[in-house]
Amino acid sequence: MWRKYAILAVSALVLASAPLEVAGQGGCASVIARRDIKSLSGAERNEFFEGVRRLQEEPRPNRYDRFAYIHLQATFEAHHNAKFLPWHRQLTYQFELALIDATRNPNFRVPYWDWSKDSQAPAQSIIFSDSWFGGNGRPGDSCITTGRFASWKPMYREGSEPECLSRQFNSGDSISPFSTTDDIARLLEISSFVDFSKEFEDVAHAQVHNNIGAGFMKMASPNDPLFWVHHSFVDKVWAHWQSRGDRMLAYNGANSDGSPARPEDPLHMLGGTVGSVMDFRRLCYTYDDLGSARMSRRSTGDGGLGGLLGLGNGGGGKHGDGAQAAAKGIKSRVVTLAEDELLPSADDHAELFQLRDIKPLSEEYIRKCGGNVTRTREYEAKTREFHRQINKMPDYISPSALINRKDLLQRLTAERSTFTATRGRKRCVLETPGGAASPSVLDSLIKTATLSLSLSVDLLLGGGSRQGGLTSLVPLVGQKGADYIKAAYAS
Question: Gene3D superfamilies, per this entry (predicted)?
Fold first, then answer.
């Protein structure tokens, strides 16, 4: 059912009602890569933050306000129908053009946040740090008080939203898991555009909005600058899907009114048509891991564990002798479970090897933009079963697993002292020195977990070729899916 939203600052309606000007499509001087925001230098990342700030500081209602207004007004045109991906591609592209103007840098491109890497402990991501986007909202009104945009006061809001940038993590001070790198690889194997788009929108994309909560799960969510790095990654996943075989122009399904989706369909309130945005290269951008756009990456600390563990370029084999791996200050014991435990709770923050369960999306969020609750629950069940299949594989550990995300794990060791590492019916329970977050403690924790369960370093990020585990992945995600995961290990 269509819903009318209470929109504030109605004096701006004349300004906000016209479609955004479509500029630059099809006339590129060069195609430039959008990059992972974590790979940017401090100066490059600051250029993004300052560009957003300049848009926000224009006279109100300004260009930044207008993006939130358009997304709010286009709720049903832009969600849960075939236009979801092309409409948001055009929106993100138009925002990119505004930032190019604000930064006076024609080579500027909107960075992306690969939340699949942060999926098992999202709240620990550097994304939510005080010097980046800020974290959870405060009790009561959910207004954020940290980050580069804590003082931003949105003009257009949905219903009774507070006059602030708001977030309310869905698990207290934590955020429930997002979709993993493995989930993305599985989605990329779906051959039909409409089937891919529906499942991607309904679960992987929606989890980020729903689980961060408050203003971020509202239809005025572009108020939060986090929206843009989220949707840049959403677009990146679609670009990867398009780049497989003859899919660049693949498009089918139905519009919000039930009519057959066609490339000539207009993009509501944005200008342009679906067909005008299908080939992202005509919009003068690509992504840093697509073909010739691949580039060296400057890590901010979310990379592999090879250097941490001193694995170098070595291949297979077990970790060194027990005396070296017996971690000073780490206590461990191995217990035998009554049966295989293949799916840790979504609220589990201790398991190092396995992928977690996901929390169901709230029905409020699903229905807000015209979603189908039954279909979403079916997709969620499919995701849970896929995680079980991944977790039962004896020769594979996901690149999204906590033991492969040293940046998240290091922050977790500052907050908790007990961790588990589970393979089949064997579980290693590990105790670390309370509040210890040093690299040496993290090194010891990982070494003890892997040694205790006699695992090969080939299962860890940076630990070798992993050909065995990747081969056994093919029945689940296809050869190209396995290749996508292999690239995640190398990034």
Answer: Di-copper center containing domain from catechol oxidase (1.10.1280.10)
Superfamily of structural domain 10-293: Di-copper center containing domain from catechol oxidase (1.10.1280.10)
Who contacts 382 (Cβ-Cβ below 8 Å, separation ≥6)? 199
In this prediction the pTM is 0.89
What amino acid is encoded at 302 in this protein?
A: D
For 459, the token pair is 């299962």
Instruction: Measure CA 396 to chain center.
Output: 22
- Gap between the Cα atoms of 442 and 434, Å rounded: 12
Q: Using CA of residue 190, residue 192, residue 193, residue 199, what is the dihedral sign?
A: negative
Query: How far from the centroid of its chain's Cα atoms is residue 123's Cα?
Result: 12
Of the candidates 486, 444, 80, 62, the one whose C-alpha atom is nearest the C-alpha of residue 261 is: 80
Question: Which residues in 103-132 are b (16+ Cβ under 10 Å) and which e?
Answer: beeeebbbbbbbbbbbbbbbbbbbbbeeeb
Q: What distance in Å separates the CA atoms of residue 18 and residue 336, rounded to the nearest whole number?
A: 65
Strand partners, 336: 426
User: What sign does the dihedral 115-116-119-120 (CA atoms) show?
Assistant: negative
Condensed to tens digits (0 to 9), the pLDDT of residues 113-136 reads: 999 999 999 999 999 999 999 999
Residue 26: pLDDT band with limits 50, 70, 90: low
Rounded-to-integer distance, Cα 403 and Cα 486, Å: 16
- Mean per-residue pLDDT for 384-408? 93
What span, in angstroms and rounded, lies between the C-alpha atoms of 377 and 396? 27
| Domain ranges (residues) in the chain | 10-293, 306-340+392-490
Q: Each residue of 441-458: b (16+ CB within 10 Å) or e?
A: bbbbbbbbbbbbbebbbb
> Is 10 a residue whose pLDDT tops 50?
no
- The structure tokens 């201790």 sit at 350
- Beta bridge partner(s), residue 419: 430
pLDDT recorded at residue 359:
98
The DSSP annotation for 273-313 comes to BHHHHSSGGGGTEEETTSGGG------SS-S-SHHHHT-TT
Q: Is the dihedral of CA 97, 99, 104, 106 positive or negative?
A: negative
Pairing mode, strands 418-423 and 285-287: unpaired
Q: Give the containing element (helix H, strand E) for 421.
A: strand 418-423
Return the pLDDT at 433.
Answer: 84
